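User: structure tokens for Delta-like protein, please.
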Amino acid sequence: MRFLLLFSFSFLLSSATFSFSTHGAGILEILIESGSPVHTGFVVTFANKSHVTWRQLKADTPELLIFEDFDLLSSLLMNVTIHDNITSNSVVFSTGNKKVVDFDHLPLPYTGLQMKMKCAENWYGYYCHNHCVVKNELRCDEYGNPACAQGYCGSNCHKSGSDCPVFGNCSCINGGECIRRISESETICHCPTGYWGKDCKELEMYRQKRNLTTNFGGNLTVPNKFWNRTDIYQLFEKYGEKSRTSGHQDAQTYQSFGKLAEICVLIWLVATMGYYIVKCCGELEKNEKKIVETSGDEKKKTSEEEKKCILIEMNDM
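Assistant: Done. Predicted tokens:
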């Protein structure tokens, strides 16, 4: 019986371990600035799961928050709520087009706010579901299709030199890289974040205009200092790169609250099963002890009765 309980416990543990849902490669970045120090909470809700955190914002200092693991195929809309002790404001926007979420005006004490969706490293496409790895002479276009670096060609980009046509019609600027898709003979410019177009000369000004909805608090607003900035993509890159290279936590990454809840449920299940296993094993040991004691008493009683019978027989003689 004990082995059966332990087997059931092990099976439950292994089943629970592999029951977590697969997380996606979508990332939300929130760049925010406050005019005064404020303790601010952020609740990001997507596909019925919430990412939750608090952050102490310093006065006139941009802060970058990064929320990961969004499966963009599971939903099209995301809800972000920003709240403190005085105000609470929310916005709903589309996640698929990777546009910057832009606001004309913001409620005090906030003076700057932008939000942006992007794909995790090595993931591409509208829903961040196409995997492609850049290495050596291999490159990836914006959709995750494999391509060859300048000067290389072939099905695996293994050819170079005279075997490959000259990239004569490719003149990328602003840090763009000339590549050739493996499935095509035409060369294109792979543009860095913030630029687009044939030669990467156009600033990427694709934005979603949104207004924050006030849940509670005052309605006093100020112009968004990040609004309509041509370098907004570079600003995101600046604070993201600063956190990666300096070790200073200007950007902090937060995982899914739903994942934490799953872990808590697993711990509860393990603790509950452990309790009942210990309890059942204790009951079994008690029952076994009682059986042994009862058996001993019966044997003792039988032995005494036998002695009495022998004495009676001897007296009769």
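User: Anything notable?

Assistant: The helical segments are 2-17, 232-246, 257-316.
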